[in-house]
Amino acid sequence: QKGTLRAYYASVSFVDALVGKILTALEATGQRDDTIVIFTSDHGYHLGEHDFWAKVSLRDESAGVPLIISVPGKKPAVCHSLTELLDLYPTVASLCGLEVQERLQGKDISRMLDDPAHTVREMAFSVAPARKGFLLREEKWAYIQYGEDAAGGIELFDTKKDPGQFDNLAAKTRFAPVVARYQAQLAEKLKQVRNNDLERPATK
Q: Less packed terminus of the chain by CB within 10 Å, N or C?
């Protein structure tokens, strides 16, 4: 495990150095004031929490990602709204003055750059295909379901009282209404994400 930690911290240091090189190059070539820079990742990384290592769960350590957006002319700020990586394309399109197509499932989050208190999403959705897991993450609750029929189990965490996500409340009777609400919301969410144009014939 020590080797894994050393490799992780070495990777973080390496990425930090490379980001510095990119920003320095933009400054040196006079492109910094014309360039949007986004720093993010496709997943988080467990470092032993819950006896997990790497990107193996839908807990916050694995499902959460960094998101830093630097836009010329915008002041630094910290935003707390939930977002999804799907939101990056419509956001960049909007910032570049391009038309944001209505068919996109992502949301334009560029308003957050002027109003850090702006809420983009009340709930974020994430998927772990290998584990057939689905996450619905709100400010207070994290709902994780394994299998569309929940055959692999359900987890429910109160992230305000239990930020480490150790106490699974899903089987406790008093939380049955919360579980039922999320099961219905997940079923509806899966219908929405499958309502896309990937299988539609191309138009001339």
A: C
Inter-CA distances, 60 with 28, 57, 103, 135, 141, Å: 38, 8, 29, 10, 11
pLDDT tens by residue, 75-88: 999 999 999 999 99
Strand spans (E) along the chain: 37-40, 46-47, 53-54, 67-70, 123-128, 133-138, 141-146, 153-158
70, β-bridge pairs = 37
Average pLDDT score, the chain: 92
CA-based radius of gyration for the chain:
20
In this predicted structure, what is the pLDDT of residue 195? 79
Beta bridge partners of 141: 158
Global pTM reads 0.88
Eight-class DSSP state of 58: S
In angstroms, rounded to a whole number, what is the distance separating the alpha carbons of residues 120 and 133? 24
